[in-house]
Amino acid sequence: MSAKIISGTEVAAQIREELKKEVDALKEKNGVVPGLVTILVGKNPASVSYVTAKQKSAHELGFYSLQDDQPEDISEEALLALVDKYNKDPKIHGILVQLPLPRHINEKKVLNAIDPDKDVDCFHPVNVGRLMIGGSEAKFLPCTPAGIQELIVRSGYETSGAEVVVVGRSNIVGKPIANIMLQKGKGANSTVTIVHTGTKDLEAHCKRADILIVAAGVPGLVKPEWIKPGACVIDVGVNRVGEKISEKTGKPVPVLKGDVDFDAAKEIAGAITPVPGGVGPMTITMLMKNTVTSAKMHAGLPA
Ligand code: NAD
């Protein structure tokens, strides 16, 4: 039987609808307007498009949203001062510095200068620590992993007691999603295994997974026969494997593939995310959710 396709596009739209209602109520009842600033240094085309998408989303939800463009040659000192300005700005609840930064700027130093309570990307070591402790300590969840958890929960899979196998141990996907899924609580409480380039028998681990989360960045790494029949497969990988001409624009666009062979895997899995249209659309939506959470927190409201 063919797997249920978990559409990140649909789930993200659903969450944004819920957020819009929450933002409207916050404004009306509490006079609180979530504020997000995105800081862009230079004009890297990919960064420009990411920041534009984030601003569009913030605008649609009715946030107070600011796009702060800075020249490529801004000094580290000036960028740190800018971050500090927004740390102190009561209208701003979320600060996002678009990466990568130019080479003369120490990225870590800049990210670590963001007030952890406004760090809606959840990259600050304080927030990484809070995530590890879990429970009410975790103010925000990092966006892509939080999106993955939402997809699993909303697809109706039971996470409590489930064998979750995460392929990949990066700081932005593998480690945090493993941490999220092992916490005691709703939508988690799973038995988690992380596999990586040092793992001896990748196949044996994947075959045990009730929920298989793949974030390796290697197209087709996970073979269909590694998937337990009926498992929930979340394919985080986004790999450019060629180019095609867009039917809409007539211009060349990249052909994207995940880390799992989707066509074959969907005949074995119980549910699976497509690439594109799976995890991808969730990331910005979870950034918006974190900004709303931060606004509530700063207003002393239950988050
Ligand atoms: P990364 O390169 O930082 O980490 C990849 C991890 O996979 C590493 O820990 C490595 O040990 C593991 N790995 C690589 N090859 C392996 C192999 N052959 N066997 C076992 N383990 C292997 O990558 P990342 O930043 O975690 O991203 C992973 C993928 O997810 C990429 O394709 C990236 O584009 C995608 N991604 C998508 C989103 C999104 O959709 N919003 C967000 C972040 C990352």
From TrEMBL:
Record-listed NADP(+) binding positions: G168, R169, S170, V238
GO cellular component: cytosol
Protein name according to UniProt: Bifunctional protein FolD
Gene: folD
Oxidoreductase among keywords: yes
The species this protein was found in: Candidatus Nitrobium versatile
Catalyzed reactions: (6R)-5,10-methenyltetrahydrofolate + H2O = (6R)-10-formyltetrahydrofolate + H(+); (6R)-5,10-methylene-5,6,7,8-tetrahydrofolate + NADP(+) = (6R)-5,10-methenyltetrahydrofolate + NADPH
Domain of life, per lineage: Bacteria
EC number: 1.5.1.5, 3.5.4.9
Phylogenetic placement of the source organism: Bacteria, Pseudomonadati, Nitrospirota, Nitrospiria, Nitrospirales
Residues in Tetrahydrofolate dehydrogenase/cyclohydrolase catalytic domain copies: 6-121
